[in-house]
# Entry
Amino acid sequence: MPEHFELLIHGAKTNDGKTEIRAPYDGSLIATVTAADEIAMKKAMDTAYGLFSNKDTWLKPAERIKIFGKAIHLMTDRADELALEAAREGGKPLMDSKAEVTRAIDGMKCCVETLRTQHGEEIPMNLNPASENRLALTQYEPIGVVVAVSAFNHPLNLIVHQVGPAVITGCPVIVKPASDTPLSCLRFIKILYEAGLPPSWAQVLITKNVTIATELIQDRRTAFLSFIGSSNVGWKLRSKLPPGAHCAMEHGGVAPVILTEHADIDVALPLLVKGGFYHAGQVCVSVQRIFAHETLAIKLADLIAEKAKLLTVGDPTLPETEVGPLIRNAELERVERWVNEAVNEGALLLCGGKRVNETCYAPTVLLNPSPQSKVSQDEIFGPVVCVYSYSDLDQAIQQANELPYSFQAAIFTQDLNQAMKGYRQLNATAVMVNDHTAFRVDWMPFGGHRESGMGVGGIPYSVRDMQVKKMLVIKSKEL
# Structure
């Protein structure tokens, strides 16, 4: 019997029945989840806002730290189970899902470390007659109700990045996981409950009707929206936020990588293969566009293709699998269509370009697609890497910057001046030197500009964004 997950909205009932969660690899039924209706959604917000409004019910920092300590212990004990279930529901290979669980546990530790080390500041007083006999200082308080909308591709770690900062700062949070991958979220929230978090502080909204989630976001009591997903959806939701609400939006990119004539191919090759085909390319900063100097472009593309052909594609729950399925069949069809269009428009297909089975697409390498092809213009979000030949570094940077996205970029070179030129001139929020675009640790700033998003992710930055500074001014003749 498939596992069933009940509604995680404190004190709510619903009449919307169940939704089925199926494995993207073989379509098998993994679990059923009780779906929330509009009444349940409103109950979630009433509960969350009621908590925030009554400061006597706020969880003290020491309580939050204690809860996180227990949750970290529980997650560590269940790491293998969490990884296997994440691989089943999301399609990310088990070897990478294990790494995701390790990151999620470390992310919980990072939340605690951030709370322990943050502090307010003293505002100088007694500097003129108007400020005499005063002491002023600031402290941090929770911003209010956090609504978190998440993506499918890291079903546990993304939830930790959104829910963890909210809970550790003392914000009531309502999280809407991706409809394809809600189970890791549900398991994580239940772990928080088991660790001692009162259920009303973290609630999960899973709906059959997207308008219910939209209504939640535009509720005047929403103080902060954390959104990870497509730009089309994200910008629409931002436009519906109530006045005064803050937000952080993490969208996709079309990550550029430049290899100069001074690049070390032996260093670059394994990094580009991993960065391009990790999670079947379903990562917002996957290696997608590689601009290689004309002296090495063909050689590099051939080497990437050789490595790509050797990758094990298939069941994500098997330990040897390196590339799993696309999340939905519609995405597989889209990737297939884009690649076929690129070939018809002049790209040279070096490997892949076909389905491995009904849900997996072969790792694909294209040489010199047309700049107007969809694979050159938009985020592929599939296991496809494009290599472009260039003759002048300024030309490569110009091509890399032509799209309306700005997220992570990379440059491979042994020449310091070229590296610094790439850092200075590439339109990106982060530039990696001699590393792939998908590099990330969870305490660093992470987020896009322009159409790639707004605000900054990364656990310490999210913790800060989910709080407000509050000033205290004391007047005393003794000061």
Observations:
- The longest strand covers residues 134-142.
- DSSP finds 15 helices and 21 strands in the chain.
- The longest helix spans residues 94-117.
- The chain has a mean pLDDT of 94.
